[in-house]
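User: Now give one protein:

AI:
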Amino acid sequence: MKKCILAAATLIVFLGLSLDVAWSQTSAGAGKATYRLTHIEPFEPFAVVKGGASEGLTVDILTEALSRAGIKVVFSGQPQEKEQEMVLKGEVDGLSFFAINAERKKSFDFSDPYLMTGGALFVKSPEPPCNSLKGLEGKTVATPLKGPLAGYIKKNFPGVKVFTDVNDYKSTLEMVLDGKADAAALNTQVGAVLVRGSFPGKFSMPEKGFLEIPIGVAVAKGKHGDFLAKFNNGLKAIMADGTYDRIMAKWGVPATTKPPKE
């Protein structure tokens, strides 16, 4: 009888500890099979919603890398100004496309860089292409506040007036067309796609960007570390077997979009 009581007590303790561990893992997001990632909508060629589903360079890379770890990812397109708040409030698990810098690392944890992008200047045609912020001293450059370019310009080019009262890339370009800004500072690849598709012939295309930025997946600080580790391993796998390069070729982006080897 005593042995039965002891065995029962041991089983109860074991089950209690197991439930505690399971609860703590669930609370921390460990072991999840599906993660919810948001992206700016629209943000071609990196991500855009078509027919109710997200597609693009970022979507392909993340889907392939995470599939190697048995993780499914659900993407949702959101306005740029809402993305960060949604992650910090736990409404989604992470940002699929987020520039990595020291300031953002205070609130977010990042994966390894999976893309290199940057900032470029778009000026109204027929003005000549503008490739440097040095030529815009005393002039106004429009760029979304939530993007990484506003802070960079203010810090490194204090003589440039930065206008950030814009919600998205399209409205930023419209500020230039309306004469309210001298140039739009936008993501190099995304800005070029948007100009060609929505404003053909109205802007002088930059010959090169003024800033190079590493891009990673971001989650709220202290959350989903296991997810980031699995993504990093999956990223290494698709880079090693040629899948990554095939995705790059599919979307027609330059070789400089690939992050340098460590």
Summary: Residues 1-29 have pLDDT under 50 and may be disordered.
